[in-house]
Specification:
Length: 66
C-alpha cells in the first residue's frame, strides 16, 4: 500500500454503478463492487491502509533522526 496514491468513487466518471478506482505506481485500476455498501467498505478499508502505511513510514523517518 505504500505505492498507493488514490482511492475514490468514479461512478459518474465511467458510468458504472458501485465503481471506484485505485491509483498505484502510475497505474489506475478500476473496480466494481456488488453494492453501494460494499463499495464504501472497500474505499474505507483501502483508505485506512494507505493512512496506516503513511503513518508507519513517518514514524520510521522520525526514529532515524533520534
Amino acid at each position: 500500500m505504500n505505492q498507493c496514491q488514490t482511492v475514490k468513487s468514479v461512478e459518474e466518471e465511467i458510468n458504472r454503478q458501485f465503481s471506484f478506482k485505485l491509483e498505484v505506481k502510475g497505474r489506475t485500476y478500476y473496480m466494481q463492487a456488488e453494492s453501494y455498501g460494499e463499495k464504501e467498505a472497500w474505499i474505507g478499508a483501502l483508505g485506512k491502509a494507505m493512512i496506516k502505511q503513511s503513518v508507519m513510514i513517518d514514524d520510521q523517518d522520525e526514529d532515524a533522526y533520534m
